[in-house]
Structure formats: structure tokens, C-alpha cells
Amino acid sequence: ITKIPFRLNPNQALLTFEDEEVAQRLIKMGKHTVNLDNQIADVSVKPFTLEMGIKFELHITISGKKIKVSEVPELPIPEEWMRDKLELNFYKSDQGRGGEVESVKYDKQSRTAVITFLRPGATNGFVRCSKYPLFVNGRCYRLSVFPDTDVHLEKFQLYCGISKKTILLKGIQDMEDDEESVQDMIEIHFQKPSNSGGEIETIKYVSKGVTWVCFEE
């Protein structure tokens, strides 16, 4: 789930209630008179809406039989010979313990290859090393080795981040008290059932500058 930050501007507050009925009741009222340290503030209560977000599942399957190889050296030999040397090199491997090779797909232009082993789990030793030696004509070259993966998305959804339990307060007056004190006064006011409030789960108030708020769910 993508996290979408919400910009909380100066003299605004976000209140999340434990009961969504409390939040919806306050939103329907639209305006609310709050007593802040003997100062009367007429604040507007707005529904809280985030921008559009996305949800998806990312599935990654790592092959136990295939590895991808890059940085194959450019040598003046036929492609078939290079395929044979790659197959022999990984078949005789002591470091990766690969074993018998089923096939080698070699692309000379991109200097890459896909090695497929017969035995499942043969690639386990190779994916732990990023560089692997290739011996050709008495010289040692270093190949880059990567696991072969299948990546696909599932359950891709667009969603609109509307919180039924959260309200946005606007129009809070500038006060000499610090932010924490004002936040406490707002929380006390909206917790009282006599003010159409209820138990508050979280609250965030900012008097100067801006802050970014992210919701987990």
C-alpha cells in the first residue's frame, strides 16, 4: 500500500476518534465552538480525504534451476564454443556446486547467458556470490551472476484514502500557548460527550509551518 502524505497547514488539527460515529456526527455539524484557554474559537470541521493511492501484491519467485550471467567476455571464438565453455565451467563448479546443465542460452551481443541446471536447488550456491570465475584458454574472467526471478503484480487497485474516523479542524486562532498545550485543550474539548465528542485515538495540531502526516491504513 502506497503511503500518501497529507499536508497539515498552520492552525489546523487532525483528530482520529475510536468510534467513527463520533467523527461523522461532528462533520455533519460543520461548525464547532471550542473554548481554548478562555478564548472562544469557531472552527470548521471537515472530512479528511487523502489523494488517490494504489494497493498491490508483488510476487517474486526465485528459480532453483536457472541463473543469469552477465559480463561474458568478448572472445574471437564461435558462439557454440562459448556456450560449451559456459556449460563445462558451471558443470565442474566447486564454488556453486551446480551439477549437470540442462541448457545454456547465450546472447553474444548483450554478453549475457541463462544457465539451466537439471537438479532443482542447484542454483543455491551461485546466488550467494555476485562474481564467478570463468576459465578460458588459461585465463580467468569474472562473470556477474544473478538469480533468475519471475516478478508479477496481483490485486492491483486504486483507492481513495477517506478516513471515516478522522476529522480536520480549520480556523484555530493563533495563541500564545505552545502547540502541546493547545493540542491538549482541543483533545479535552472533543473528548467530552457534552460537546458531541468521544474517545480520541490520535491528535496532531500544528501552529506554525506545516507537517506531513501519513496513515498506515
From TrEMBL:
Q: Can you tell me which residues the record assigns to a coiled coil?
A: none
Identify the InterPro entries for this entry: Nmi/IFP35_dom (IPR009909), Nucleotide-bd_a/b_plait_sf (IPR012677)
Give its localization: Cytoplasm; Nucleus; Secreted
**NID domain boundaries:** 13-103, 113-201
Q: Name one GO cellular component term.
A: cytoplasm
Chief subcellular location equals: cytoplasm
Q: Which domain of life is it from?
A: Eukaryota
Pfam families named among the record's database cross-references: NID
Q: Which residues form the signal peptide?
A: none
Q: Which keywords has UniProt assigned to this entry? A: Cytoplasm, Immunity, Innate immunity, Nucleus, Secreted
GO process terms (BP):
innate immune response; regulation of innate immune response
Q: Which family does the similarity line name?
A: Belongs to the NMI family.
Name used for this protein in its record: NMI protein
What is the native source organism of this protein?
Pluvianellus socialis
Source taxonomy: Eukaryota, Metazoa, Chordata, Craniata, Vertebrata
